[in-house]
Specification:
The complex is a heterodimer. Chain A is of the alpha/beta class. In chain A, helix 3 links the parallel strand 8 and strand 9. The termini of chain A are far apart. In chain B, the strands form three sheets. A seven-stranded antiparallel beta sheet of chain B has the order 4-3-7-1-2-6-5. Helices cover 19% and strands 32% of the residues of chain B. The chains are: A alpha/beta, B alpha/beta. Chains A and B meet through strand 5, strand 6 and helix 7 of A and strand 14 of B.
């Protein structure tokens, strides 16, 4: 049994704004389904939290194939936000997650502000939901989220409306595909966000040299995996220093050193994503490795590391 | 359907003609695969390729101390398969599986007109390996149609000849360059047999099972539909995870929407799929 937070071991618990997590390892949206499907492949009990696949008001079938392409050190995806819809999640899936140790964060996306507001209202009465994460940066649906995450005015207005629609902590997941993500983070903060998560995937593409055509049916896709970690880390560093909100780091996390880098850069927790595709047990392994590492280095608590790299400047 | 993530020990990497290879891996605690199921195999190198590669379980046998020895048939196409083909015996590689849903065999074993056609294109024969073995064990007759560009593509022809002949069936080889078997496409050979059977007013096949390039399987699906024969195909799509998390392996369905190749498939009824 794990014993983080008590006894003689290092204290892995972390505070992310209003969220208290038993450890700083979460699974990222779109890489872990709705949580329960993979209970047989990973020990859910070990996670600090899980973020659901992005949910919309109505179910979505997603994009035609080809949806993924492997690249060096990562992959491109253009899944098209395939999901079962918020109602089916709340009715059928959430009851199975309630009572498990990981905090459940529900990722939401819409096509206009009203969608987001309605989604937040649907989720709001459910005690099993610890927070909502707004996908305002998914690069896959051209008429969808991309505008929200790219324009400070629009983002501020959206977050303000969601803020007033729910009492849950509001996480805003930042797009990396802008010149200054921290400026968008500030806009989200001004709108009333509690937490920023950074970053979503980087827009990219791949071409099949045999067919001489783009690999993905949508041409563009989101790049994830170890290839983006230094890029994501830089953005987390900027956002943590420039915006007065707690940050969850996302982008190519696979090793305990990746976790430490994000913490030191200023993230209070991290989300593990694409690495789960290679090894479904990556997240629980990272919990163990983080504990071992802190113990070996005599570090008493995860919280003492958050932002420590900036303090040494 | 729990499929633990196990560590496999590479027992053998056997090079075969035209950059084909056969991997034998001993896996601890892996359940035997059903015909058509697959495994995800990671390279020994953590960084390259990053994602695992999907392989049909071509063969399997009990290993010592409760282990399972699986055989995988591959062809070097990109970095992932190149890394696996360059592996050496004694290496440890993570193996996830068995995954997905395999073939369901339709006619009861005792049906008088039970005769199947197995139609493979090149390395697609790997997806039909366990099925051919199962049919042979059950004494259910089948013909094995094996097509390739050249003779080197028919890597396991001897094995499929042995298995099909055990059931009273036969191996039909075709090559586009005519270097082995009949010159032409394997689907032409299949169609010829079916049409000849029609002339004798006896249906040639009660079921068709196929695995190979998309165009081949699409042609088989047309032939099956035209002649009212039930059939299934083991599909191959790019896969990120193999276990339903990434939603990358969408297959378009005739009834609308998509199914995941890794969970709903990789075996689909021929009429389920938009070819």
């Amino acid at each position: 049994m794990s014993s983080e937070g008590v006894g003689s071991g290092p204290d892995l618990s972390t505070r992310v704004g209003p969220l208290e997590l038993r450890n700083p390892i979460l699974t990222a949206s779109g890489t872990f389904g709705y949580g329960l499907e993979f209970a047989e492949r990973t020990d859910l009990h070990r996670l600090g939290g899980l973020v659901t696949k992005g949910l919309s008001l109505e179910p979505l079938a997603g994009n035609p194939p080809v949806r993924i392409a492997e690249t060096r050190g990562g992959m491109l995806n253009s899944i098209g936000l395939q999901n079962i819809g918020v109602d089916r999640f709340l009715d059928d899936v959430l009851p199975g997650l309630v009572g498990l140790p990981p905090k459940v964060i529900v990722n939401l996306f819409g096509y206009d502000q009203d969608d987001y507001v309605r989604l937040a209202e649907r989720v709001d009465p459910h005690a099993g939901v610890a927070a909502v994460e707004l996908n305002v940066s998914c690069p896959n649906v051209s008429k969808g989220g991309i505008e929200f995450g790219h324009d400070p005015e629009i983002l501020r207005g959206l977050v303000r409306r969601v803020r007033s629609a729910t009492g849950k902590p509001v996480v805003v997941k930042l797009s990396p595909n802008v010149t200054e993500p921290a400026a968008l983070g500030q806009a989200a903060s001004d709108g009333g966000a509690d937490i920023l998560s950074a970053v979503n995937t980087f827009v990219g593409m791949a071409i099949d040299t045999n067919t001489r055509r783009p690999v993905l049916s949508t041409v563009r896709g989101g790049l994830s995996g170890p290839a983006i970690k230094p890029l994501a880390l830089r953005i987390v560093w900027d956002v943590a220093r420039e915006v007065d909100l707690p940050v969850i780091g996302i982008g190519g996390v696979e090793t305990v050193d990746d976790v430490l880098e994000f913490l030191l850069a200023g993230a209070s927790a991290v989300q593990v994503g694409t690495a789960l595709f290679r090894d479904p047990r990556t997240a629980e392994r990272l919990v163990d490795e983080l504990r071992d590492r802190l113990r070996a280095e005599g570090v008493a608590s995860v919280r003492s590391l958050v932002g420590a790299a900036a303090r040494r400047e | 359907m729990a499929a633990p993530d196990a560590t496999g020990r590479v027992l053998e990497v056997r090079p075969l003609p035209l950059r084909h290879f056969l991997l034998r891996i001993r896996v601890d605690g892996m359940e035997p695969a059903a015909p058509g199921q697959f495994v995800m195999v990671a390279g020994a190198d953590q960084a390259e390729p990053y994602l695992r590669r999907a392989f049909s379980v071509y063969g399997q046998e009990p290993g010592r101390e409760g282990t399972l020895v699986i055989s995988l048939l591959g062809k070097v196409i990109g970095r992932g398969t190149a890394a696996l083909a360059a592996g050496t015996a004694g290496e440890d590689v993570p193996v996830l599986g068995p995954l997905g849903r395999g073939f369901h065999t339709m006619a009861p074993a005792s049906a008088p007109d039970d005769r199947s056609a197995l139609v493979a294109g090149g390395i697609g024969s790997a997806g039909l390996g366990l099925l051919a073995q199962a049919l042979a064990r059950a004494g259910r007759p089948f013909d094995f149609y094996y097509g390739g560009r050249g003779a080197g593509d028919l890597v396991e022809a001897d094995e499929f000849r042995r298995l099909s002949e055990r059931t009273g069936g036969r191996l039909v080889e075709t090559t586009e360059d005519g270097a082995a078997g009949i010159r032409g496409l394997v689907t032409e050979a299949l169609l010829e047999t079916i049409e000849n059977g029609k002339a004798r007013s006896a249906p040639a096949y009660s079921a068709i099972y196929t695995c190979g390039p998309h165009g081949l399987m699409a042609a088989v699906a047309r032939i099956a539909a035209d002649h009212g024969i039930e059939g299934q195909a083991a599909l191959e799509t790019p896969m990120g995870c193999g276990y339903g998390a990434c939603l990358g392996c969408a297959v378009e369905l005739t009834k609308g929407g998509y199914a995941l190749c890794c969970r709903h498939g990789p075996v689909f009824d021929l009429e389920e799929v938009v070819w």
